[in-house]
């Protein structure tokens, strides 16, 4: 591994060596899997969808279904309209989804395919639907693709009848099914009627029954997406993931919304629950007060091992900011905070958080390269690394304790079943972080010190 000076790292702009993101259709596909009886459809070549499906399957250890327009040279030159229409007909005939969600790829974007008009021209079977969004992978990241697909569903399906249905739309952001289950549990405890969109719980964490079901029982229904147009309010969780679809819904159906951070850590969860209390007119129940108290108790018990430790965090912007909030609450120093997703707002937000906790010398970067992060760590090391599986080479090379959190986690099992949001999620993260630090101590300390941490 090279060891570049800070100036050499700062000066290299034209090349990404180790990206901290993946392509838009991965996010679009994951979003569409959160809609009940939906077949995600990739308008491009087979190689793209094969990669996207495999990538999601490696993270969730579940089948990620999707169909493809199967571009070859002909479609690449003359346009993919006939491929899309033939593909959609075959998908409805053979796999019988209620809805097909089409996203584009680099190739179909580059040749300028007008997917919206292809869908309008398609002879739609009765009772079936299709939506689409544009997901050029040379723009943004999988997070961009995720919210573009959400916006696509809203543009096609959400409708305002003029009568509010009393429900609150919850846009959970790009999170795991375990997080969505936790958000639903919180909304239930707060007695707040809601529509979760999208909802991959019950789809990407469905139980083994012995029978394969192409469309498991989970997912937001088409009726629920339509009813978002009559929602009384939307809670858009994660400003970089959920603001755009909330905005699209507001413009189309006049549904007001609040953008909140992903509820990670104490303050983020407090903020969500206070907003839920306001919307539902319900007091925060004792059960949640107790969970908060348990979290604070564990953080206090273990704070000797956290205080002043330097942490590098990388991944998706909202997840990284949520993790930053938590480590700040734990008394740690978020020395490096990076995301591969572009957008200046990330750096501004991270610096606001540093300033709030009086942190100096911390760096935040969007559109970041993990190669740069590694170089920063070589120049000034950290005590802990938190992020996706792509951090494990850095952790190994620099012998840094490593906690896997965010997307993708390809080399561990069951992680997507457990939340990192809410007080329960924060408690789990505190456990993972503390134990990673203690494991490292046990492995590297002198023999006579091995019983010191008791
Ligand atoms: S060609 Fe584009 S859409 Fe296809 S896998 Fe590569 S980056 Fe993604």
Biggest sheet: strands, sense, closure? 5 strands, parallel
CATH architecture of the largest domain: 3-Layer(aba) Sandwich
Mean pLDDT: 95
Give the N-to-C terminal Cα separation.
37 Å
Shape: globular
Report the structural category: alpha/beta
Strand content: 5-15%
Strand order of the largest sheet: 11-10-9-12-13
Specify the helix fraction band: 40-55%
**Count of individual beta strands:** 13
Q: Could you say how many structural domains there are in total?
A: 3
- CATH homologous group name of the largest domain: Nitrogenase molybdenum iron protein domain
Radius of gyration: 23 Å
Number of helices: 19
Describe the protein's topology.
Layout: H1 6-11, H2 24-33, E1 38-43, H3 46-60, E2 67-68, H4 73-78, H5 81-95, E3 99-104, H6 106-110, H7 115-121, E4 129-133, H8 142-157, E5 168-171, H9 177-189, E6 194-196, H10 222-227, E7 233-237, H11 239-253, E8 257-260, H12 265-280, H13 286-301, H14 303-306, E9 310-315, H15 317-329, E10 333-339, H16 344-356, E11 363-365, H17 370-379, E12 384-387, H18 392-398, E13 402-404, H19 422-444
Parallel strand pairs: 1-2, 1-3, 3-4, 5-6, 5-7, 7-8, 9-10, 9-12, 10-11, 12-13
Helix pairs in contact: 2-3, 2-8, 8-11, 12-15, 12-19, 13-19, 15-16
The chain binds iron/sulfur cluster (SF4).
Iron/sulfur cluster binds next to helix 3.
What does this structure look like?
The chain is globular, with a radius of gyration of 23 Å. By secondary structure, the chain is an alpha/beta fold. Helix 9 (177-189) links the parallel strand 5 (168-171) and strand 6. It has 19 helices and 13 strands. A 5-stranded parallel beta sheet has the order 11-10-9-12-13, with helices on both faces. The protein has a 4-stranded parallel beta sheet with strand order 2-1-3-4, sandwiched between helices. It has helices at 6-11, 24-33, 46-60, 73-78, 81-95, 106-110, 115-121, 142-157, 177-189, 222-227, 239-253, 265-280, 286-301, 303-306, 317-329, 344-356, 370-379, 392-398, 422-444, and strands spanning 38-43, 67-68, 99-104, 129-133, 168-171, 194-196, 233-237, 257-260, 310-315, 333-339, 363-365, 384-387, 402-404. The longest helix is centred in the C-terminal third of the chain and has 23 residues, at 422-444. The protein folds into 3 domains: 24-157, Nitrogenase molybdenum iron protein domain (Rossmann fold), CATH 3.40.50.1980; 168-286, 3-Layer(aba) Sandwich (Rossmann fold); 288-449, Nitrogenase molybdenum iron protein domain (Rossmann fold, 3-Layer(aba) Sandwich), CATH 3.40.50.1980. The protein is 48% helix and 13% strand. Iron/sulfur cluster (SF4) is lined by residues 23, 25, 44, 48, 51, 105-106, 137.
